[in-house]
Design brief:
Rossmann fold, 6-stranded parallel sheet, 3 domains, Transcription Regulator spoIIAA, globular, alpha/beta, binds iron/sulfur cluster, 15 helices
């Protein structure tokens, strides 16, 4: 064999090798596209219940659906993928979910290929998840709150049968972005879970213990949002934002996070929810007072104005402590808008104790309140308490509180304080 022959053979071999590599890449990219093409023309709808945390998590689900090739629709009848992102905080919200899922039975019969998924706080409770599977056999996917980031996997896997997965705890997912649905406001999750175990609340059982995101990851996400110049407002989210960083043990605190976010160049305003009175410390109030970017508004759930009821609720502050925080806020941030939440008809609450709630509302003159009737949640301490209050009394109390609230707002509007 001459040298020229060897050169020819080598050249042919090289050409063959290059062609082979390119064809493999082409085939694999086709396979990837094909996976998404599979869903092209298909539509999804997400029905979200409950708090802002859920609304924000639905933004993650929307991103996943669109990555898989689905497009959004607001009509359940034309959707190929129907997702219920549920809330467990009140019995009424759960009943609405059961009703709405049940109503899909006919649709699934007519179009057996649609995928129905139920996820969120309700399905993080194993008992409820099993109840859904038993009662609504046409539901394809039941997922807990810690599995949401893997939703794409479950959609693919659904072809092999019904899917149920509930992880007990999970890390905060940093890998899947959000399809931000709000036009002006960008939600940013800074932590998940809660360590407080208020006796009426299901959150610590379905969202796990507090887990804070690393400050550097939060700052990176906010810088990206600010650079997009699409959002005027950024809202930090967490069940108890004031205890941000305590689990990280690296010196992170909520006040430091707020002040570091304010150092980011750009035109945006900053706010947060939700605060717990026992953790709203002076350093946080000082940062809100000092930083121009932070909106002068605080939502500070009081829940009751009576110390015995607050202790039964395991809120770990007293009426006096709550009022002292309000005083400090008003002294340091005179124009601060303060809003609150109240629960009436907590087990054993007497008429006199309820009047303490009315008197607290009268004294503080909030800029707005949300009033709820106590709703027993399965698995919580309060559910098992003696002295549950009847529905009629709860209704009367909540109406009295709302009437008072209306009068206060009218007074404020008329300038008589
Ligand atoms: S602070 Fe209390 S009410 Fe709020 S999420 Fe935690 S346990 Fe529930």
């Amino acid at each position: 064999m001459t040298k020229t022959d060897i050169r020819h053979i080598l050249t042919i071999f090289l050409i063959f090798l290059v062609c082979f590599i390119f064809s493999q890449k082409y085939i694999s990219s086709l396979a990837k596209i094909d996976k998404n093409l599979y869903n092209i023309g298909m539509k999804y709808i997400i029905i979200t219940y409950g708090c802002q945390m859920n609304v924000h998590e639905s933004e993650k689900l929307a991103y996943i659906c669109e990555k898989l090739g689905y497009t959004p629709t607001d009509k359940r009848e034309e959707a190929d993928l129907i997702i219920f992102n549920t809330c467990a905080i009140r019995e009424g919200a759960e009943d609405r979910v059961f009703g709405n899922v049940g109503a899909l039975k006919k649709l699934k019969k007519m179009r057996p290929n649609i995928i129905i998924a139920v996820c969120g706080c309700m399905t993080q409770k194993e008992q409820t998840a099993n109840y859904i599977l038993r009662t609504f056999p046409f539901v394809d996917i039941v997922l807990g709150t810690f599995n949401l980031a893997n939703f794409a996997h479950y959609i693919e896997a659904v072809k092999t049968g019904r899917q149920l997965e509930i992880l007990k705890e999970g890390e905060i997912d940093e890998t899947v972005p959000y399809k931000r649905s709000d036009r002006d406001n960008a939600w940013v999750n800074i932590m998940q879970g809660c360590n407080n175990f208020c006796t009426y609340c299901i959150v610590p059982y379905v969202r796990g213990r507090e887990k804070s995101r690393k400050e550097e990851n939060i700052l990176k996400e906010i810088k990206e949002i600010v650079e997009q110049k699409k959002f005027k407002k950024i809202t930090l989210l967490g069940q108890n934002v004031n205890s941000y960083g305590q689990d990280l043990k690296d010196g992170s605190t909520f006040s430091k996070l707020l002040s570091d976010i304010c150092k980011i160049d750009g035109d945006f305003s900053l706010t947060f929810m939700t605060s717990h009175p026992k953790d709203l410390t002076s350093d946080v109030i000082d940062v809100i007072a000092k930083e121009k970017k932070i909106l002068k508004e605080i939502h500070l759930p009081a829940q009751s104005g009576n110390n015995r009821i607050l202790a039964l609720m395991n809120r770990r502050y007293t009426r006096e402590k709550y009022l002292s925080i309000i005083k400090e806020i008003r002294e340091k941030i005179p124009n601060c808008k303060i809003t609150s939440d109240f629960i009436v008809g907590f087990p054993t609450e007497t008429e006199e104790e309820f009047k303490d709630t009315l008197s607290l509302v009268k004294e503080v003159k909030f800029d707005g309140i949300f009033a709820f009737m106590y709703s027993p949640r399965e698995g919580t301490v309060a559910e098992k308490m003696e002295g549950q209050i009847d529905q009629k009394t709860k209704k009367r109390r909540v109406n009295a509180l709302l009437r008072l609230e209306k009068e206060i707002q009218e007074e404020k509007r008329n300038g008589r304080k």
